[in-house]
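Dear colleagues,

For the upcoming journal club I promised to circulate an example of a predicted protein-ligand complex. I picked one with PRP because it came up in last month's discussion. The inputs are reproduced below in full, followed by the predicted structure.
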Amino acid sequence: MIKDIERKLVSEEEIDEITSRIASQIYDDYRDSTRRLVLICILKGSLMFTSELMKKLRLPLEIEFMKVSSYGSKTTSSGMINIHLDIKREDLSDADFIIVEDIIDSGKTLSHLVQYLKEKGACSVKTCTLLDKPSRRTVDFVPDYCGRVIPDKFVVGFGLDYAEKYRNLPYVGILKPEVYEN
Ligand code: PRP
């Protein structure tokens, strides 16, 4: 697995710093709230980031999981998202939601999810991502909490995959092009 990595892009230490910083930002934003706080982990990529983040959040919180995919090509800006796993609660009006992602690329997934949760009656919806590739946007979208802006490289690890592999790397690395070009 490690032989397929060109170089580390975000080290274990930097991931630790990022999660501490974002946990502190979220704490400051929600410490005075009387509503329930719900983190939504978007499977599968956000699994590791969500678990690190929630360990550091010194607030009462709840966790939900969703699994989604974009309709059609990742490079087109139109379309909707398929929801393969939805949150189970009926009433969203008594809670603040933070959607947690591993990476934002086109921006379609998060912009549709924010709209979807608001239409279902969520009291508030914010977004949080470990990595952001703004150069790949096809829709206008800015996350509320961002770990690190990265260049348009093929990255894997810390939840991110290529063909379902590499998710368990403890850092984010750039995949050697020969791995996906063959
Ligand atoms: C990735 C990522 C986001 C989405 C971002 O998920 O975790 O959910 O793509 O892309 P976008 O900004 O262009 O919408 P992916 O579909 O690879 O699924 P996975 O998390 O299960 O690997």
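Two points we might discuss: The longest helix spans residues 12-30. The chain has a mean pLDDT of 93.

See you all on Thursday,
B. R.
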